[in-house]
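tokens incoming
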């Protein structure tokens, strides 16, 4: 699920279970661009794969986009 729905290339995965029986997975990603803190998944029913959902939101770093535009603008002006 993580491989198909995120850009996370899994380095490590940790599995735990809540008191209510839900399974939790937390992965560490090789590429930290979008998921610097990894990806977390909760499966409310351990026997039903469709009960799993990714709870970590993909991150965007707006300041990096601004920096890229600034570098591109300087490059265009020097030509």
């Amino acid at each position: 699920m993580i491989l198909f729905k995120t850009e996370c290339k899994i380095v490590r995965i940790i599995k735990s279970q809540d008191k209510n029986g839900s399974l939790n997975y937390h992965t560490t990603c090789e590429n930290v661009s979008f998921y610097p803190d990894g990806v977390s998944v909760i499966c409310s029913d351990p026997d039903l794969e469709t009960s799993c959902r990714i709870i970590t939101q993909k991150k965007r770093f707006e300041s990096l986009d601004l920096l890229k535009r600034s570098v591109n603008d300087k490059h265009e002006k020097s030509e």
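note: The first strand starts at residue 10 and ends at 17.
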